Amino acid sequence: MVFKEKVVLITGSTRGIGKGIAIAFANEGAKVAINGTNHKLCNKVANTIINSGGKALSTPGDVSDSEVVKNIYKEIIFNFGHIDILVNNAGIIYVEDCIDTSDLQWDRTMSINCRGVFLCSREAAKYMIKQKSGKIINISSALGKTGAAKYTHYCASKFAVIGFTQALAKELAPCGINVNAVCPGIVDTDMFDDELEVLMKDMEKSIEELKEMFLKTVPLGRFEKPEDVAGLTLFLASEKSSYITGQSINVCGGFEMH
Description:
This protein is of the alpha/beta class and 258 residues long. It has helices at 16-27, 39-51, 66-80, 103-131, 152-172, 190-203, 207-215, 226-237; strands at 7-10, 31-34, 55-58, 85-88, 134-139, 177-184, 248-251.
């Protein structure tokens, strides 16, 4: 198994992309720390992995709270002894015109999508620097490279993640730590369904019409699955990517090409 005895924290891993990444790591032998704000869902995903013969730990909490983040790492170190890989996946999204975006929506988006990445990376780096090894993988987005109407707040947060990734990669490279970003496209998850519900009312189109419209923007002709994101994430967490750092790599079926 590629990640046997490796310890990985995946934020926002109770559903969608994060859950897919967590299960993929567990299947490759990693000890996985499951994170999310819903305690019951964290326990559920952790127990699913454990019941399948894997090793998992439930570490619920809001990653935008620095004290919570510190306690998550203390729990991981207490139970698993070290941290090898961090996947900053936790994120939220609203569908809203800029002029209708509230202060609360903007601040909450930045708090989870940016501050959470910063706090979790800062804490991981403290442990990784001591052991002179580690992998930090930030889940950005294709919308972190090209802006889209109705997503100004989300795009701003995901562009920021890419800049943060580049800067942190340069800081931590001398310590043997790789920092990269993954940029998914249109992923078929509950979050995408929630977006479609909002757009359906705003654009006066059916869910089926909206899906057909979005699908036409994907050259490979199918919506992305969490497993597609997990594949690239596991590669970046492996030794096969040891000479890759500071990169923001698309995994989006051709939806974004730069």
